[in-house]
Amino acid sequence: MICPCSGMPPGTDFDHCCRSALDGEVWPTTAEALMRSRYTAFVRRDDNHLFRTWHPRTRPADPGTDTRTEWLGLTILDTTGGGEEDSTGTVHFRARFKDHIGEHVLEENSAFVRRAGRWMYLEALES
């Protein structure tokens, strides 16, 4: 099965893409890899991964997933910084999903920062 994030590189299966991050065995080394693992956590309803990868300053009390939402696909549109040597980065993405109303597209430019050497999701940036 191709990873829900579409795979990194494209077409990579879940076991060789996001599984080790969701299992807590490794921490993603780039902001994009963290973004992909977080999308996969939404798909798989892995609230623990979402909680531990969300910066404590901006994390909601319950960052849990909505069981009524079905995630349909992720497209990374652009990244700025967020590499292995950077301290900040952004990932511009588009995620398709379906809920009780119909199909939708979430487009966001997300900010990521390093905290204690690990990438963390900080917040959605205003367009």
- Report the CATH architecture: Roll
By CATH, the topology is: Nuclear Transport Factor 2, Chain: A
Mean pLDDT: 95
The ordered H/E elements are HHHEEEE
SS-based class: alpha+beta
Question: Domains counted in the coordinates: how many?
Answer: 1
Task: Tally the beta strands.
Answer: 4
CATH class: Alpha Beta
Order of strands across the widest beta sheet?
1-2-3-4
| Share of helical residues | 10-25%
Portion in beta strands? 25-35%
The helix tally amounts to 3
Main beta-sheet strand count, sense and barrel state: 4 strands, antiparallel
Give the N-terminus to C-terminus distance in angstroms: 34 Å
Measured on Cα atoms, how large is the radius of gyration? Answer: 14 Å
Q: Indicate the low-confidence ranges by residue numbers.
A: none
State the shape.
globular
Task: Kindly describe this structure.
The chain has one domain: Nuclear Transport Factor 2, Chain: A, CATH 3.10.450.50. It is built from three helices and four strands; from the N terminus they run H-H-H-E-E-E-E.
Outline the fold blueprint.
Blueprint: H1 19-22, H2 31-44, H3 47-52, E1 70-81, E2 88-98, E3 103-115, E4 118-125
Antiparallel strand pairs: 1-2, 2-3, 3-4
Can you tag this structure with a few keywords?
four-stranded antiparallel β-sheet; about 130 residues; Nuclear Transport Factor 2, Chain: A; about 20% helix; alpha+beta; 4 strands; 3 helices
